[in-house]
Amino acid sequence: MKKTHIKFFTEVGAQKPNSIKNKETPCPFCRIDELEEVLDTRGSILLVKNKYTVLDGAYQTVLIETDECEGELSEYSKEHLYDVLRFGLDHWERMLNSGEYRSVMFFKNHGPLSGGTIRHPHMQIIGLNEVDCMHDFSVNQFEGLSILDKDGVRFTVSNEPRVGFYELNVIWEKDADLTLLADCIQTGAHFLLNHFHRNCTSYNLFFYKNNETSYCKIMPRFVTSPLFMGYGVQQVANNIEGVAQKIKDIYFTA
Fold it and tell me: How far apart are CA 110 and CA 122, in angstroms?
């Protein structure tokens, strides 16, 4: 029987600072000298052990993307964007291939509805000892209307979204060009924050690997649909064709 639930230590969670809701909260990722365990660095990019280990049976790390507290992945220079994604993907792959974990989560929270607590740009890479985070993975959740299909990289709008309404996806094969997949991820984040049909302030990036294919789901965050929360019913917006075309027009028209 697959284990799909993980224990969350509420007493540890209560200690976590929240600089998203309270901008007066000192940012722990700006105080580099006070970080307890730095695992690796690349310029201003750091991988550190998470001080607040809220999950039972998990090895929790935080990837601090930049030393600019008000920075945002959608606005990074191309050079820094590629460095961040290469650094993160390398460490994710390393944990996946280590054989130490049942599964490994790699994700990013941005904004007040994303589930995050720290404004400073960061991602998390978490090794799970017993839980399989891929238990509900389906390739169908990433298929859909094509925005770009080039050199082993596909950029799509889901027609069978994981949660509902609008979800963007980047899918790439083993030897795909990292710069192209990174450009697509940045485009997706920038579109949601700047050109989406609603006032979107929050998104998540979720990374998955299935055999030799990797996936990134770029998910705008709003209040979650009661149909999904109560019944697991996903709704698909009736204008995803327009969203796909709008992204093409803004970002990929010469």
Answer: 8
How far, in Å, CA of 24 to CA of 39, rounded? 28
Is-contact 27 119, C-beta < 8 A?
yes
Question: How many degrees, rounded to 5, is the angle at CA 143 between CA 5 and CA 198?
Answer: 80
Q: What is the largest CA-CA distance in the chain?
A: 53
pLDDT by residue (tens digit) across 198-224? 789 999 999 999 999 999 999 999 999
Token pair, residue 63, equals 């990837």
- HSE-CB at 58 with a 13 A cutoff on CA atoms is 28
Encode 13-66 in three state secondary structure. Answer: HCCCCCCCCCCCCCCCCCCHHHCCCEEEEECCEEEEECCCCCECCEEEEEEECC
Q: What is the pLDDT along the chain (254 residues), one digit of tens a residue?
A: 678 999 999 999 998 889 888 878 889 899 888 888 999 999 999 999 999 999 999 999 999 999 999 999 999 999 999 999 999 999 999 999 999 999 999 999 999 999 999 999 999 999 999 999 999 999 999 999 999 999 999 999 999 999 999 999 999 999 999 999 999 999 999 999 999 977 899 999 999 999 999 999 999 999 999 999 999 999 999 999 999 999 999 999 86
Q: Are 125 and 106 in contact (CB under 8 A)?
A: yes
Q: Which residue has the tokens 């965050």?
A: 221
Nearest residue to 105 (alpha-carbon basis) of 20, 221, 217, 222: 217
**H or E element, residue 158:** strand 153-158
